[in-house]
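User: Let's play a game. I give you a shape written as tokens, and you guess the letters that built it. Ready? Here's round one.
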């Protein structure tokens, strides 16, 4: 039996291109590659909030992946600037996953939308559209293969700074939303030069970190490898603590 930590990853839900009322539930291979290259095993989690209590005891870590916009009603606002809204089942599932993994001390990494999920699950809010809400904002949007790059300043003494061993890092960028008011117990630990929040964390948790960039698309770069290794090491330590 493998002793590698088991990492659950929330999945996307989309209509099948083959029609006939069918859907696809999937995770991009780059997330799985990132998990496996850091020494862990990936398990894709279909959106079933009811199943979380059964599944979480099996997991040593959780990744909340990127995706569409959260419904602003989830943080008490009207939709003024959101585009495609996240599938309601995935939203319910991933918010529940974020809350319960935090309360149970399970190492959790949020990526892009995943970072926003961590924040909203803690009672925080989002900037619905950076270009229209942030004066002088950098070009943050872009899809895989065309993502822009910019530097991020990381708070000294933060867990993220400790993981990366530096207080500034160059990252990719593919989002039009970001954290606005941080949720309860969450600290903003990285920003881009325009002030947009780029990372949050819970300093009281073994590993509860959200980054706005896509490190799973930067695996050849040291910063991404260090982040996934630290996350999977935390998952391994959590697994060992449960076994003992």
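Assistant: Ready! My guess for every position:
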């Amino acid at each position: 039996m493998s002793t590698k930590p088991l990492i659950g990853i929330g999945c996307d839900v989309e209509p099948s291109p083959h029609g006939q009322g069918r859907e696809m539930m999937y995770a991009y291979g780059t997330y799985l590659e990132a998990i496996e290259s850091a020494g862990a095993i990936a398990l894709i989690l279909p959106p079933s909030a009811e199943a979380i209590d059964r599944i979480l005891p099996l997991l040593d870590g959780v990744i909340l992946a990127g995706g569409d916009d959260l419904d602003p009603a989830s943080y008490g606002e009207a939709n003024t600037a959101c585009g495609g809204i996240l599938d309601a089942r995935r939203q319910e599932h991933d918010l529940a996953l974020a809350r319960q993994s935090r309360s149970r001390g399970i190492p959790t990494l949020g990526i892009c939308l995943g970072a926003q999920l961590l924040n909203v699950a803690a009672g925080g809010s989002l900037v619905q559209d950076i270009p229209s809400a942030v004066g002088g904002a950098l070009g943050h949007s872009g899809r895989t293969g065309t993502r822009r790059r910019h530097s991020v300043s990381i708070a000294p003494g933060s867990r993220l700074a400790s993981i990366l061993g530096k207080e500034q890092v160059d990252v990719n960028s593919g989002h039009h939303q970001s954290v606005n008011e941080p949720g309860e117990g969450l600290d903003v630990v990285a920003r881009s030069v325009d002030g947009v929040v780029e990372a949050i964390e819970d300093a009281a948790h073994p590993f509860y970190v959200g980054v706005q960039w896509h490190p799973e698309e930067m695996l050849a770069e040291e910063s991404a490898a260090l982040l996934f290794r630290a996350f999977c090491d935390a998952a391994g330590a959590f697994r060992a603590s449960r076994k003992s």
